Amino acid sequence: MEDLLLRWPGRLESNRAHRRVTSVCSRCRRRKIKCDFQLPSCSACKKASVDCKGYDVGLEREVPRSIVRYLEGRMAELEVELDQLRKDVRVRAMPNGSYEQVTLATTLAAAMLEVVSPNLSHSTSWPIFSAFHLSPSSLPMPLKAHFSSSGWPTEEQLGGNLKIPKEPTRPTKLMRLSEVPRNAADVMIKTFTEHHLPQYPSISETTLSDSYEACYGSAENASSFERFITYMALAISAKTLAWKSEKFAFSTSLAFWNLAKEELKDPSCNYTPVTRLQVTLLLAHYALTNPSAANLWYCVGDAARLCIQFGYHREPAPNANVDLVELESRRRLFWTTYGLERALSSYLRLPFLINEDVITTQYPSVLPDSCIRPDGLFPGPQKKAAALHMWQYRRLESEVFRVLFLQEDVFPLMTLQEWMDDISVRVTNWHRKATTDFAPEDKIESRDVHLNFLKGRLHRPTPRNPFPSQASRLLYIDTALQISQDFRSQKRQGRLYYPWFAVHILFESAVVMLDTAWSCADWLPSKLDIGPVVNGIRSFSSVLMDTATLWPAAGHCANAIENLAKPVLGRLEATAAGLDPGPSDEGVASLLADYLFPDPDLKPTLVSNDMTLPLAWEQVDEVEADVDFDWSAYQDLPGLVDPFPFDFQDSNDF
Predict the structure, then answer these.
(1) What pLDDT shows up at residue 67?
(2) For the whole model, what pTM was predicted?
(3) Phi, psi dihedral angles at 40 (to 5 degrees)
(4) Residue 571, class by beta-carbon neighbours within 10 Å (0-12 exposed, 13-18 middle, 19+ buried)?
C-alpha cells in the first residue's frame, strides 16, 4: 500500500509541497477570518449555513473536515487507482504486441467519434450499436452539407434541374418471418450463400444455415444473434429481386431490415466480441446495398478497431492454442474487414486504419466452412475464391492510393513510370483471371468496373502526378465512358446491388472527365471526336439520378455534375467549333480543383480554393417504403436462383 501511495499522482503532488498542518476550514482561510476549529463544522460556517470543509495545501483543493470522511474518500480514490494499475499490468503483459494493439484500438475508437457527424445525437435505445451505426452513409468527399434551420437542404441550396427522388414513407407494421413462404425464404437464403456471402464472408455458411433453421422452426426460441443474421441475410438477398420487381425488392428488403433492427434493441442479446464483429460486418454489407440505412464508414471503422483489438491482423504465435477452425475464422473475418476498409478509405481519400506493413495474417482457405475441421481440411468446392480474388484487388487499389495520393515510396527503386507500367500489368492480369478462372455463377460481376476504375486512377490528376500526359488523359476518357456504360446497363437490368460503390465511382469518374474537358479543351478536339465525350459527360448525371432510386442522396451528386457540366461543355464545344471561348472562368477552375482534391492535405498547389462547394444530402432520419408483401413474385423460383452472370453488351450508346 505504501508503494501504491508513492506512485499515486496526488501523493506525488503532495510530496512536492511543504505540508503545513492546519485545521482552519477552507472558508475561513479564504476569507482570512478566525476559525474556532470546531468539528464537524466551525461556528462561522454553521452561522452562515454552509458546508464546512478543510483545505489540503499539498493537493490544493477542499477536503472534508471530518477525518473519517476524508480518509474514506482517499481510500476510494486509492482503490480506483489500484484497479487501474492492475489493468495496466495485465495489458502490458499481453504477448505479441497486444499492448500496442489495445492502445491503437483505443485511439482509433476516439478518432471514430470525431470523424462521424458530431451533431448526431446518441440514441440510448440501442444498447449494443449506437445511432452512429444507423445513420446514413456519406456522399463522395467533395460535397459539403449546409442545412436550413429545419435540418433539411433548402431549394436554393439544392440547385440543378433534376428532380431528386424522395424517400418513401415508413411501413405501418413489422413483417413476421412465419408469414414468408418457406420456399421463397429458401431461395433468398440460397441466393445469399451462393452469390453474396462468397464475396463478403462475414459469417460462416454453417452458422447461417443453423440460424436460419432455428428461426424458421421457432423464431421466439432462437437467440437474438441467430435472428439478426437470418434477417440480415434475407434483407441483403431480397435486393437481388430488383431485376424482377424493383418496388417489391426494396419493400421486402426494408421489411427484413426492420426485423433485424429490432434485434439490436434487445438488451438481453449478450453479443460476444466476435459476434459483435460479425454483426458489424453484416451492417456494413447492408450499408453497401442501402446506404440510407446504415453508416458504412462507422461500421467498417468499428470492425477494424475490433480486429486490431483482437490481434486478427497478425497470425497467432506458433505456441498459441488455436485450432484450425478458429484460425480460419480469424483470417476470414480479418480479410473481410480489410477489403471493406481499404475500399472505403480509398474512395473517401482517407488514411488507412490498418498499416499494410504490420499485417501478417494469411488468406483463409478457399474451401467452404463445412470442409474446415479441427483435424484438417477436406476436399470441396472453392466457395471463397471470389473473396480472395477481390482482396487481391483491394491490395492493388491500396497500392495505387498509397503511391499516387498519399505519395508513399512503396517501391523506391522504381521510377513513377516504371511503377505505373508494372501495376498496369498486374491489374490487367487480375481482370483476366477474374474473367477466365471462375465458373459463370462465381464470376465477380463488377470486374469490368473495377478494372476501368483502377486504370483510370493511374491516369487521372493526383497529388503525385498533378499534370498527366495527353496520352493519360485520352486513356482516362476511355475508362470513364466504359464505367458509365457498365453502371447504366446494371441499373437497366436491375442488377445494381451496391449503390454506395456506384455513386462514389461514378462521381469521381465524372469529375475527372469534366476536368479533362475543361483543362484540355485547347487540344482535345484535335485528338478525337468530342461528340462521345460530350454525350458521355452528360450521361453521368443521368446515371447518378437513376442510382438515386436506390440511394436518394445520390440525386445531389447528379445535380452537382449537371451544374458543373454546363460551363465546361460550353467551353469545349466552342473551342471545337473554332470559336473564342473567352477568358477562363476562375470559379469553375477552382471548383474543379476542389472536386479533384477535396482533402487539403492531398491538394497540389494549382489554383485558388475559394468557392463554396454545392450541397450534399444528409438524412435526419430513415424513412422507408410501404410494404406490400405479395409473395407471388417468387412463383418463378428457378429464375430467381441464378440471376448471374452479368451481360453489359446491350448498351452501346448514351
Answers:
(1) 60
(2) 0.72
(3) -85, 0
(4) buried
